[in-house]
Write a structure and sequence with these properties.
By secondary structure, this protein is α+β, with helices and mostly antiparallel strands. Strands 4, 5, 6, 9, 10, 11, 12, 17 and 21 form a nine-stranded antiparallel sheet that branches. Strands 3-25-24-23-22-18-20-19 form an eight-stranded mixed sheet, with helices on both faces. It has 15 helices and 27 strands. It is globular.
């Protein structure tokens, strides 16, 4: 028998009603009549009518320096890179120093001796941004022209410093790239193991390891070159016969705004706003045409479809799977798995060094880094004025009409946004599934989340971790892979990812890939959403209009609730470890919606993408025999 939609016939061989598809089709018709109602439907004003197709593999990457210009090549285009002159990356020893301090603490003490600023505060000369317990970015606050050189000299010979790394910038994009002395290599299928080893030896490279969940991809290290010189080494390798592609094992980090440019003009999210999930049911909102701008989830639930039997892999940073609203919606390892990792139970953390970690939640080292920040956000005004004295001077110059009280409140918001943002994976998961005692529900409240952590602190992502995470999710039987990593600008286009995603799509024809389109307000789609065969999702607000930050255009396939002022989801600051020596706030804890940080209002295409993943989970729960493949889902959507 067939399920008939006015524009599609799907042959199933058995009777099957996909309620979600009917709802989606209804939403398409509403949108066709009124472009202000843009909810989980093909955005007719942005995209064409042709279905998504699995892409063809493009040319290999080339990363090199030509005439002093740094760049790497992707899809026959040069992607320029510039050296950041005030920032370096450092790799730290994981052990405590002889004085009993962590390497980060020792580093801070050496680089930021407690001196008095001109405003009477305790200023800092070097901004330290930890990416993990063993990696950090160092930025010279006073000397932008030669700060990286001075920082390299300052840390040279320190026993807790293992290595320094150059930092590159993608012009016009808020992406910084740490360049380790490593690359990811894939050889042609016809290249034998002996030939591959000869190629590496001739090019003075050492094979470190083969990726466990991305077979045929190898991490290699240059033996004699380092710094930006390795770009030329890897470029030469990419031109060798028998090599399919090479890409530096980049560590990508979103460029953080400093305090003085922390987007003061945006409205603060009110902690006392109603506890409403308008993306699930928008009838509590009032808009100009009184149109529904949600995903119609309650109507689907009434038909008994809530995502049961569906696993959604969330590739992101910290996923606090023991959150009270998530703990019963986590996919556990099947005992029959033949390739189980040691200690594997609830997903895996590929962002950690030395093969990763069994736990995607915040670690003790990360808690030691973030907890003092949260505590600082609730410190007395005088303490914040002393800590940020120099920054406040700059802030006053930019916003001369602001009162001191407003500036201090902006500082608190800035700090809390940094801490809460580290739980991006938890926020993404809460859009998809979950059940809270306070009535909180995900779009597919009976779906299971497979936590796959591929990001470290400060929104950092390494090429190797993303590849492993993708392969792991597919190997563990995920029905949907939801990707919101990379921040506002996504990640760099990467032919290694492109090739591997193609392989996964061919091997797993029923696996659905969903990714956020990006928050650049540009007529494009960020990576990984821009790869073929991936559903690229933009964002709308509660009134049904495109969110002003959302990317748009022909490469954006769908739009869904992402908020302009916020969608309600989960956060991990409620972890008990955060509240040691901190009294619970009694008079507002914005942007959190409770006094411990379990729930938060946030916004971005990072949350419209998992909203679509939740809808796909509802659809797949109706397709229990998994008769519909990716192409058919993409056509329906």
């Amino acid at each position: 028998m067939s399920v008939l939609l006015p524009s599609l016939t799907v042959n199933l061989g058995t009777k099957l009603t996909i309620y979600t598809c009917t709802i989606l089709y209804a939403r398409i018709q509403i949108m066709y009549k009124s472009l202000s109602s843009l909810v989980l439907a093909i955005n007719l004003s942005l995209v064409g009518s042709s279905p998504l197709a699995i892409f063809a593999v493009g040319n290999p990457v080339r990363a090199q320096s030509e005439g002093g210009d740094l760049f790497y090549s992707f899809d026959n285009k040069k992607v320029p890179l510039t050296l950041v002159t005030d920032t370096i990356g450092v790799v730290l020893t994981p052990k405590r120093t002889t004085r009993g301090k962590t390497a980060l603490a020792e580093l801070d003490a050496d680089l930021n001796p407690r001196t008095r600023s001109r405003s009477g505060g305790s200023g800092t000369t070097v901004e330290i941004s930890p990416l993990s317990a063993s990696r950090a970015l160092l930025r010279a606050k006073k000397n932008k022209a030669t700060g990286s050189i001075e920082l390299t000299e300052k840390v040279a010979g320190k026993p807790y410093i293992q290595e320094t790394l150059p930092v590159l910038q993608v012009p016009g994009k808020p992406i910084r790239v740490l360049l380790p002395n490593e690359a990811i290599v894939k050889f042609d299928a016809s290249t034998s193991t002996t030939q591959a080893e000869q190629i590496l030896s001739i090019n003075k490279l050492t094979k470190l390891r083969e990726l466990r969940f991305a077979k045929g991809f190898y991490v290699v290290k240059a033996n004699e070159k380092n710094g930006i010189q390795v770009l030329e080494v890897f470029n030469n390798l990419s031109q060798v016969k028998g090599v399919k592609t090479v890409v530096p094992n980049f560590i990508q980090v979103k460029t953080q705004s400093n305090l003085s440019t922390a987007n003061h003009s945006s409205k603060r999210i009110n902690q006392n706003r109603p506890f409403s999930q308008w993306h699930i049911d928008s009838r509590t909102l009032i808009n100009a045409k009184n149109l529904r701008t949600d995903v119609y989830a309650p109507e689907v639930w009434q038909h008994g479809k809530q995502g049961e039997g569906v696993v959604v892999a969330v590739l992101d940073n910290m996923i606090q799977w023991d959150h009270p609203a998530l703990i019963n919606n986590i996919s556990s390892l099947n005992d029959s798995s033949k390739d189980a990792l040691k200690g594997e139970s609830n997903g895996w953390d590929f962002s950690s060094e030395n093969g990763g970690d069994r736990d995607t939640r915040i670690s003790a080292d990360e808690l030691a880094i973030l907890q003092p920040k949260l505590k600082l956000s609730m410190a007395p005004d005088a303490d914040l004025k002393a800590k940020y004295a120099d920054d406040i001077d700059i802030y006053k110059a930019e916003y001369p009409k602001l009162s001191e009280a407003d500036i201090i409140e902006d500082i608190r918001q800035y700090i809390r946004s940094q801490v809460s943002g580290e739980f991006h994976g938890t926020m993404s998961s809460g859009m998809i599934t979950g059940n809270g005692s306070n009535g909180f529900r995900g779009i597919a409240p009976k779906a299971k989340i497979l936590p796959v952590r591929v990001g470290g602190l400060d929104n950092s992502f390494q090429t190797e971790a993303v590849l492993e995470g993708l392969g792991y999710a597919a190997a563990r039987g995920a029905d949907v892979i939801s990707m919101s990593f990379g921040g506002e600008a996504g990640v760099l286009g990467d032919p290694v990812q492109k090739i591997f995603i193609t392989e996964l799509q061919l091997k797993y024809p029923k696996l659905i890939f969903v990714a956020s389109a990006g928050n650049d307000n540009q007529p494009t789609s960020s990576y990984p959403a821009a790869y073929g065969g991936i559903i690229s999702v933009g964002a709308i607000n509660g009134k049904g209009y495109r969110a002003p930050y959302s990317n748009y255009g022909a490469n954006v396939d769908l739009v869904a609730p992402g908020g302009e002022g916020g969608v309600l989801t989960l956060n991990g600051v409620g972890n008990n470890g955060f509240w040691k020596d901190i009294a619970s706030p009694t008079n507002g804890f914005s942007p959190f919606q409770d006094n411990h940080g379990y729930y938060i209002f946030t916004q971005g295409t990072s949350f419209s993408a998992p909203a679509v993943s939740g809808v796909v989970a509802l659809m797949k729960s109706a397709d229990r025999d998994r008769r519909i493949d990716r192409y058919q889902y993409l056509t329906i959507l």
